[in-house]
Amino acid sequence: DGELTAGVRAHAEEQHRKQVNATAPEGKTGAIVERNERGTTAYAAFLQESLRFGDLEVSPGIRLERIDNTRDNELTGADGDASLDKWLPSLGFTYTVSDRVELFGGVHQGFAPPRTEDLIDNSGFETDVSPEESVNAELGLRLRPGDETTIELAAFRNDFDNQIAVGSIAGGSTPLAEGEALYEGLEVALHASREDFFGAGWTPVLQVAWTWLPTADIEGEFVRVDTGAPIAGAEEGNRLPYAPEHLLTASAGLRMPGGVDVQLELVVVDEQY
Q: Which residue from 71, 172, 178, 217 lies 20 to 30 Å from 151 (Cα-Cα)?
């Protein structure tokens, strides 16, 4: 047995940017230091085949991305454009062990294009910024110990050949940088409820999602896109910033008749550089 899925997508957006530097804190007029028109159009097409062999389902797929960017500096008349094409393969599987246990996994190529303002500078010149590219893999288990309880566990590995890092304006500089990075970890999700547990249609609900990220390492030195100079502190072996080791979201709630839900949520973000 098999099932073929195909799709296309077209997306367009425009930015109209104007920056006026006033001479007083509440000033409404002043020097126009930026007036930009930026545009992005993106097209995608994909094919995925799901092949079933008894309890095993295998799903190979392929996706094509096409992205066109334009930037027009209306203060100077300078303009520029840039285009990017990318083929993205994927392969996934699920194996039904029993009515309550399912094994799943997959590997696919990750991709994210650079932003228009990073790819084309204010003079209309195209900057040599590579897209983000990674190989992402996961292996997991879905469990249904009860009719109203599900547990999902998944180990993941995201290996970036190239990751883009935007510098901090608050830090005093904004160098755009890129380099190699590796993320490895484990995700656990729990959902439990009990229909009409309190009677009269009242149902308690518990949800927990935990991510453990022991590995978030710089695998290759991050360097500035404009000059190729190394970024201070971004040496191989260091942990990446904004990558907490633990993330937890837990909620307990009550579904009541009439479509009313009451919920209390706890969000925990571990220390991060």
A: 217
Q: Which residue intervals of the chain are DSSP H helices?
A: 116-119
Contact 181, 217 (CB under 8 A): yes
Between CA 185 and CA 140 the distance in angstroms is: 12
Q: Is 117 helix (H, G, I), strand (E, B) or coil?
A: helix
Query: In a 10 Å sphere around its CB, with 0-12 CB exposed, 13-18 middle and 19+ buried, how is residue 4 labelled?
Result: exposed
Q: Are 268 and 244 in contact (CB under 8 A)?
A: no
The separation between CA 260 and the C-alpha centre of its own chain, rounded to angstroms, equals 32
Considering only CA atoms, give the Rg of the chain: 24
Three-class DSSP category at 195: coil
The whole-model pTM stands at: 0.85
Instruction: Enter the tokens of residue 202.
Output: 């009242």
Cα distances (Å, whole numbers) of residue 39 to 63, 82, 116, 117, 254: 23, 11, 8, 10, 46
Two tokens at 89?
A: 């393969």
Q: What is the C-alpha separation between 251 and 189, in angstroms, rounded?
A: 12
pLDDT digits (tens, 9 = 90+) for 42-93: 999 999 999 999 999 999 999 999 999 999 999 999 999 999 999 999 999 9
